[in-house]
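Hey L., structure's done. Input below.
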Amino acid sequence: MDLQSFELLFQQIDSLWIAPEIKKRQISEKLPVDFKIHRCLIKLPKGIAPIIEFNEEINLQAEFEAAPNENIQAGNLVYLHQIKKIKNVKAPIINDTRVAFVFLYWNNTQYDVIFDFTPNIPDDIIAKEQKEIWKYGEVIGESFQKILSENTIAIQLQNYELFNTIWFCGQLLPSFPIHYQKLLLK
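Output:
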């Protein structure tokens, strides 16, 4: 996609969903003063108003590889040091049904956009079997993996003086819960 097409796509996403949602939140005073969009998931279920989620509001199920010697139980909080790698992210679902979506995220230089409207395309245009194929899980998983890596770097930078006084090792990272997504073992 060339730059002009991407800019047009982003303008349409902004004018259709993002700007109205931000305005609604500003009016209801539910938008933090320092609000910035790092990630945005726009769920587009059939017959229901779009659902727009920003940053930590995004709640997708992910499959990940646990770090060595970590025994993670379903339903428990997962900490940064317990994850070796996020492998895959499951499709957005509402009421047990996969929904069309637009997902955009900041990659430190620009916004990347992933979208899939196939769940909303009539069955006579695309066979139901084709609509069930989910091919974006690894790409979205990679974006969340980058977020984890960035969190790791941010922790190191916040604790720069401490890390300069002791030998650095990955296990010295403080533990904090990951609240922006549910993580599931495969």
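Residues 173-186 have pLDDT under 50 and may be disordered. The CA atoms of residues 39 and 55 lie 5 Å apart.

-- N.
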